[in-house]
Automatic annotation (TrEMBL):
GO molecular function: oxidoreductase activity, acting on paired donors, with oxidation of a pair of donors resulting in the reduction of molecular oxygen to two molecules of water
Name of the protein: Acyl-CoA desaturase
GO BP field: lipid biosynthetic process
UniProt keyword Membrane present: yes
Taxonomic superkingdom: Bacteria
Length: 359
C-alpha cells in the first residue's frame, strides 16, 4: 500500500466542521452509534425471507420452484449482508465489538465472501482512500475492465461497456474462488492484515468457507430431491443473478462519469479526507425509503463515507444536511436516480475504453 497524506486546507476543514455540527445537532436526541428498532426489523425481515425460502428447498418441489426459491434465498441473503453485515463491519450494529464480529460473520453466510478479509480491506483501504490506485483495493487493476484513467489501456477495452454485464455476473463467484484466497495468502496485502494473527485469519477463513459451501451446495446436494447437475447449475445461475443485483446497487457509487480518481503529488492528495469522499462518491435515490431499505443505506454513499460510525438507518435524516452544506460551502455532492447512476457508470466505461483517457 502506498501511504498517502490528505491536504490540510483550512476552508475544507471548516466545511466538515460545520457539517458535523449540523449532523450532531440533528441527531442529538438519538442513539446513533448502534442499531435501533428500524435496523433490527429490516435485518430480521430479510433473515426470515432468506431462511424460510431455504427451508422450502428440501420439500418435494419441481425444478422451477426450486430455482425460484434458491434465487430468493441468495438474493435475500445478500440483503442481510447489506442490512446487518455492513454495519457490523463498522461496529455500528451493537455496542460490543465481539457481538458485531459474530453478526458480521453470520450476515455474510450466503454471500461467500470472507467477512473478516472483506471488513479489513473495506475499512483500512477503501474507506480511507476511495478511488486512489495503489491504496484503495477496490480499484485495483483487473484483467477484464478498465475502471480508472490510471489503468493501462488495451484494445479490448473499446468494447468493455458491452461485455461488462457478463463480467459482473461472475463478480461474487470470482471473490469466492479467487480474490479471497489472494487476499489471504499474498504478502502484498500484509499491510491490510496487520494486527490480526495468521492463525485467526486462517481459522476463520476455513470455518467460514465450510459453513458457506455446506449451506449453499452440500446440504441441497444431500437432501434436495433433484439431480446434482441441476443443483450446481442453480447455484451458479442464482449467484450470477445475485451478483448483478450487487453490482447494480454498488458499482456506480464510485465508478461513474464525473468521479474523481486522485493521484497524489508526492505523498499528498489534493483534498482533505472529507472532501475527498465527496469527489469520489455518488448517492442514488438517497431520499427514497425503498432504496435505503434494499441497499442497507449504501445508496446514501456520501453519508456513509463521511459518517461511517453512524448506523445506516439514520442516513435519511442527514442526507438533506449534506446536500445543503455542500451547496453552502461550494463542495461537490453527486446524486442521481438508480437508473441515472447506472447510465453514468456505462458512460464511464465507454470513456475509459478510449486510449486518450489515460493518465
Amino acid at each position: 500500500m502506498k501511504a498517502k497524506y490528505f491536504n490540510k486546507s483550512a476552508d475544507e476543514k471548516l466545511f466538515f466542521l460545520a457539517l458535523k455540527e449540523k449532523v450532531n445537532d440533528k441527531l442529538k436526541d438519538k442513539t446513533v452509534s448502534h442499531g435501533g428498532a428500524r435496523f433490527w426489523f429490516k435485518g430480521l425481515f430479510w433473515t426470515l425471507i432468506c431462511y424460510s425460502s431455504y427451508s422450502l428447498l428440501f420439500l418435494n418441489i419441481d425444478k422451477t420452484i426450486f430455482w425460484l426459491l434458491y434465487v430468493v434465498f441468495q438474493l435475500s441473503g445478500l440483503l442481510i449482508g447489506f442490512s446487518f453485515g455492513h454495519d457490523a463491519s463498522h461496529d455500528t450494529a451493537f455496542r460490543n465489538k465481539k457481538a458485531n464480529s459474530v453478526l458480521h460473520f453470520f450476515s455474510f453466510l450466503t454471500v461467500g465472501i470472507d467477512p473478516l478479509l472483506w471488513g479489513l480491506r473495506h475499512i483500512r483501504s477503501h474507506h480511507l482512500y476511495a478511488n486512489v490506485e495503489g491504496s484503495d483495493i477496490d480499484i485495483d487493476k483487473n484483467p477484464f475492465l478498465r475502471l480508472s484513467p490510471t489503468h493501462p489501456w488495451k484494445p479490448k477495452h473499446k468494447y468493455q461497456a458491452y461485455y461488462a454485464p457478463f463480467v459482473y455476473m461472475f463478480t461474487l463467484l470470482h471473490s469466492v474462488f479467487m480474490s479471497d484466497w489472494v487476499y489471504l495468502f499474498s504478502d502484498e496485502y500484509n499491510w491490510m492484515k496487520r494486527g490480526v494473527s495468521k492463525a485467526e485469519l486462517y481459522f476463520r477463513f476455513l470455518l467460514y468457507k465450510v459453513f458457506y459451501f455446506s449451506l449453499v451446495l452440500v446440504l441441497p446436494l444431500l437432501y434436495a430431491d433433484l439431480s446434482w447437475t441441476f443443483i450446481v447449475l442453480t447455484f451458479l445461475t442464482a449467484s450470477a443473478f445475485t451478483s448483478m443485483v450487487f453490482i447494480i446497487m454498488l458499482v456506480g457509487t464510485h465508478f461513474f462519469d464525473g468521479a474523481d480518481y486522485p493521484q497524489p503529488e508526492g505523498e499528498f492528495l489534493e483534498h482533505t479526507w472529507a472532501v475527498h469522499q465527496l469527489y469520489t462518491s455518488c448517492d442514488w435515490d438517497a431520499n427514497k425509503g425503498w432504496a435505503r431499505f434494499l441497499s442497507g443505506g449504501s445508496n446514501c454513499h456520501a453519508a456513509h463515507h463521511l459518517f461511517p460510525n453512524i448506523c445506516h438507518t439514520n442516513y435519511s435524516e442527514i442526507n438533506e444536511i449534506i446536500e445543503e452544506t455542500t451547496k453552502e460551502y461550494k463542495q461537490p455532492y453527486h446524486h442521481k436516480t438508480l437508473f441515472e447512476m447506472m447510465f453514468s457508470h456505462f458512460k464511464h466505461l465507454h470513456k475509459m475504453g478510449k486510449p486518450e483517457f489515460y493518465n
